[in-house]
Design a protein that fits this description.
By secondary structure, the protein is an alpha+beta fold. It contains two helices and ten strands; from the N terminus they run αβββββββββαβ. The protein has one domain (36-259). The protein has helices at residues 10-59, 235-243, and strands at residues 75-77, 90-92, 121-122, 128-129, 131-132, 163-164, 190-193, 196-206, 216-227, 248-259. The chain is elongated.
Length: 264
């Protein structure tokens, strides 16, 4: 019996390698998509947990901590058909007459998903980012740690490693060096987890509109992060990257109620 000692020809080998490469590229592309999706879900979950933690801490505060100094903010419901909050749209109003636009659910002049009261990005010129830690808050550190930009008095300032650009949104109550509520300092607005920095900003408004009630509040909290995570301490570079779509602000927003005392 004659033995066939022939091996693979060069053409067969090339075809086999090509098929393996095509299959491998498809697999690694699929794997990369899965990894990115899982990372996005993890970040969203982390931001939501942080937003709810901040909201819960604010809900537990006593009366004076939630009465804002300066010009009061009010919100009310319209009678439209939008299904944003309890079947109605929550809107800005000066509490004179019926609620008026714009809606607090979406800021049409800026980023979808942001409430107007806590939008950390000013999209109009000059564009600005509200809060940035200058890439100094490492894992396990909080905003009051000196190597994260804090001070012994736990008051945030623009002179430290943390940058707050209040002109980006004058409605944010905290962090805000121009409008500090001392009890807010116990709530950490900057947290780092798995090489991603999360920023929490919040605002409190009176409601319902038209009653000037002092015993009911709407608490707005937005937690955001920058994707990809910046590696620079230069805020201008970060702003430029966001402006030119080299980076993006991702966020989670929540709105909760706070009733002071017992409602009649």
């Amino acid at each position: 019996m004659k033995k066939d000692n022939r091996g693979f020809t060069l053409v067969e080998l090339i075809i086999a390698v090509t098929i393996i490469l095509i299959v491998s590229l498809g697999f690694f592309g699929w794997a990369s998509t899965i990894i990115r999706t899982n990372l996005s879900i993890e970040r969203n979950n982390r931001a939501y947990e942080m937003a709810m933690d901040v909201a819960d801490r604010l809900q537990r505060m006593y009366d004076n901590s939630l009465i804002q100094p300066g010009a009061a903010k009010y919100v009310g419901y319209d009678d439209g058909t939008d299904k944003d909050f309890d079947g109605k749209t929550l809107e800005l109003n000066g509490c004179s007459g019926s609620p008026s636009t714009p809606s607090l659910n979406l800021d049409p002049a800026s980023m979808p998903g942001m409430t107007i009261y806590t939008n950390p990005w000013q999209s109009t010129t000059p564009q600005a980012l509200y809060l940035y830690d200058k890439n100094n808050c490492s894992d396990g550190k909080t905003w009051v740690d000196t190597d994260c930009g804090g001070t012994s008095t736990s008051t945030i300032t623009t002179a430290g490693k943390i940058t707050v650009t209040t002109s980006a949104n004058t409605s944010i109550d905290h962090p805000n060096p121009n409008n500090l509520v001392s009890d807010y300092n116990s709530i950490n607005p900057i947290r780092s987890y798995k090489n991603t920095t999360y920023y929490a900003v919040w605002s409190v408004a009176y409601w319902p509109c038209g009653t000037a009630s002092t015993d009911r509040r709407k608490i707005f909290v937005t937690v955001y992060w920058i994707d990809p995570e910046p590696t620079t301490d230069d805020v201008a570079v970060v702003v430029s990257d966001i402006k030119n779509n080299r980076a993006a602000i991702k966020s989670v927003s929540v709105v909760v109620d706070k009733t002071i005392g017992t409602e009649s």
